[in-house]
Known about the structure:
This is Acetylxylan esterase. The chain has about 325 residues and is α/β, with parallel strands linked by helices.
Amino acid sequence: MPIFDKELPDLEAYKPEREEQPDFDSFWTATLDEARQHPVDARFEPVDALLSTVDVADVTYRGFGGDEIRGWFVTPHGADGPLPCVVEYIGYGGGRGLPHQWLLHASAGRAHFVMDTRGQRGGDTPDRDPYPTTPSYPGFMTMGVESPETYYYRRLMTDAVRAIDAARTHPLVDPAKIVVTGGSQGGGLALAAGGLASDVVGVISDVPFLTHYRRAVDVADDGPYPEIKWYLRDRRGRVEETFKTLSYFDGVNFAARCAGSGLISVGLLDNVCPPSTVYAAYHHYAGPKELRVWEYNKHEGGANYQQAEALRFLKDLLG
Length: 319
């Protein structure tokens, strides 16, 4: 497909003003304080995944509202720690799947905590909604968007921070060496977790979703962002109110609070997470940062090549 977003020189200079509410930090402090009223209660149950080079545990911990969230914890077989830990978040519509899908980081000698995604297809974690919401467009982008307090991603981003809390309780994990990672939705959650849990040492965010919403809704013609556009077609008077809610969940604002070393990737032909939205997050990223640009790729980004970049980044960062 042809280039549909800004030209590369314009992207390299693109640092838009952030849409951030004055109570952004107090909103998130109160949200996380409320979640931490519930003990994280992380439980790691060993499972036989028919794998000989890694050990696998089925994880349950308490996320937003004390809800039970699931995950996998994968470590090199027989490891005695302490190990750096990679906490990973999943793309839109996905779930944690099966243990043999998550061999990369344990194969490199690190602990790997994979968070399931509440309520999304393929996940083992229910959304547990008696959380009250009004009608929304099918999908998750407008679920509860009437206010920051009711928005779906308040729950999911809180789950993401609590996953870090849960990982740190395991005796094999070095609590000072936590890196968060993910692609697409998972990349957006990594930025959120990196900004909210400022003591993580690294953030790997591939083709991140959930960033620079207003630009994304204007430009993206595939994927979940159009859900917001379609929702607003029938709610003509709610445009500014909707984008105000979304600003509390914008990866650009979280990036501005990330202190750990960052590795971000972008596909210049990506019509799901347009390049300008990724560059906006990258340019506002507060910590040391690197960008990997995949000139002729869409939302798949660098795929296996980007995984190799991540392994090199982690080796340099963690040893």
